[in-house]
Amino acid sequence: MRRRPVLPLFVSASLFVSASLVGTGGALVLAPAPALAEPGPTLEVDLAADRHPISPHIYGMNFTDEALAEELALPVRRWGGNATTRYHYRYDTTNRASDWFFENIAEANDNPEALPDGSSTDRFVEQDRRTGTDTVLTVPLIGWAPKARDGSCGFSVAKYGPQQSTDEWRPDCGNGVRPDGTRVTGNDPLDTSVPVGPEYVREWLGHLTAKYGTAAEGGVKFYNLDNEPDIWHSTHRDVHPTGASSAELRDQAYAIGAAIKEADPTAATLGPVGWGWTSWDHSGLDQEVCGRTGCWANPPDRPARDGLPFTTWYLQQMKKYDDEHGQRVLDYFDMHFYPQASGVAFGNGNDPATNTLRLRSTRALWDPSYTDESWINTQVRLVPRMKELVAANYPGTKTAITEYNWGALDHVNGALTQADVLGIFGREGLDLATLWAPPGATQPGAYAFRMYRNYDGAGGRFGDVGVRATSADQEKLSVYAAERTDDGALTVMVVNKSGAEQTSELSLRGRTASTAKVYRYGAADLTSIVRAPDQQIVVPSPGAGAPSGHLTHIYPADSVTLFVVDRPTPPASSLTVGYRNLDRSPTDAEIRPAIRLENSGAVPVDLSRVTVRYWFTRDSGRSPMQAWCDRASLGCAKVTRRVVALPTPRPGADGYLEVGFTPGAGVVPTAGQVGPLELRLRKADRSRFSESDDHSWRAAGPNFEPSTRVTVYLDGLRIAGVEP
Known about the structure:
By secondary structure, this protein is an alpha+beta fold. It holds the Pfam family Glyco_hydro_44.
């Protein structure tokens, strides 16, 4: 007997098979000096530059199976896609829309009488709780959900006449297209669905929070405001045949976002979840009408947005709601992105030209000099564009890409590309990303994630504080670097995209060590991450502008190489700091520390390796901080400044002013000093400080005196002073 196939929301490409992650062999043997081949581009990592947190949520996936999620300690997993737009939690049923004959299909459930307990979404959340993964669930904005746990469909042949294609297991369910190619119109949404709105969302979240707690209590952390609502007129045209207008998308986001916040104020929302590049400028109404008439130069919904691109207007409208109601209904600006060049997204790795294009096309995520090689045909620079749009129109909103796919995840080319994408996400400061769809556990694409999340089979991870990493030719060797907070290790990921072996020098600034551990995945072995021999690091003599160390390494063709450089034991300190308070009022609107560095050692110390931190409390609010160098003996142009807010306040400090020095700033000479450096801190709103309880503060006096409360660091290691 022929049976209708079971249609889960997502079918994994392969069942999980346990695989060896780490090869065996001489892991502790230093590699011999390499036989130099054709030189590759020079690489450089600077631990003191461009430091920024890397969100763990960039390493997410949609519908990952439990074994792989557990192995990767998957940070976030999304329940999304077309079917989730129309889901009824009480019936555990989705409508598959244009994906499958607009049918209501009940999810597999051993005990439907117990619903809503035990639904597929309950089980999704429960898997995430077992693996320590944060959940993204999709909630409906479309206004419809399946009417029952039944097999009804949007375009019944008996009711609406013959159609071009029907479900062979349910021949009454058609695709909504007549034999002459015209679409069936005027069908009744009630054939499959019932109206749902904010009350439905509140009830569903009430069910979830009652079972799993609020987001703050370990329950569902994220909610997508539907899925690609700007193409409902295509994917869900049986209930929404016209394109969604800007006003509809805004008003539904207001209503459903507010319902989410009412049910769980600690949960985060993500929107507008547009399908791709066209969604940036155009509403669903624009896309539906112009798709038929070619009106792209003058779309019909543009006047309703005062001529603005849709995403600009949308963010402004979300901010307007916040300003008027004192409540965010949008926490993450979320847009999907699939590369549009032929054969890339969801493609295979069989064509060399497409493989080269796939690797090159990741530049669309960041590179202002790259013109996208598809119908997009412009500079995309997706992640910086997202961050700039948010900063200009709704500051404080985070950024997300909850669907993307560069293809060939079953091929080493896809693994290289995916490793490059993850590195770009971290470097550019994206807040959340979930791959659609996950690779099988034994596929090369899974190893790209392992290189960042479990490179040694024992939970070894790429760092969580990004630092500057540059390549003289990013198209041959791309490089990403980050420091790991828990143990201070420096991790450096190098992706060889050139198709040929590359021998390159890597310079390290701010980290002195004699060796680096080496882990590699690539075409030479697609079944494991190999622990290669340790790499020797050459440590040059200290000197102004000189790197802390450098290494020369051979990067095999089609490979991803990870260096792990442990944090060394802090060196014996030869530097001390003198401090003088130039501000005689501890309650005015300024903090004015002056510092002086003294070297009692026998070797000059390169200033570019030194940082100094002055610890303080911001007091009375969270206005942005401003920092100046008023005067410096070596010139303020050679002095860097940044104010860092602590994620968790400490006694006497909720932030610090970090002072550093540019390359070429010089040295602290033997038995000599550098200073004074006269500094100034102020809040943008000019509100007052209360300095007397600050960790580094001391009453104003006429002279510099040694301070143990102003801390000094060499190559990122504290060598003088006591932190709060």
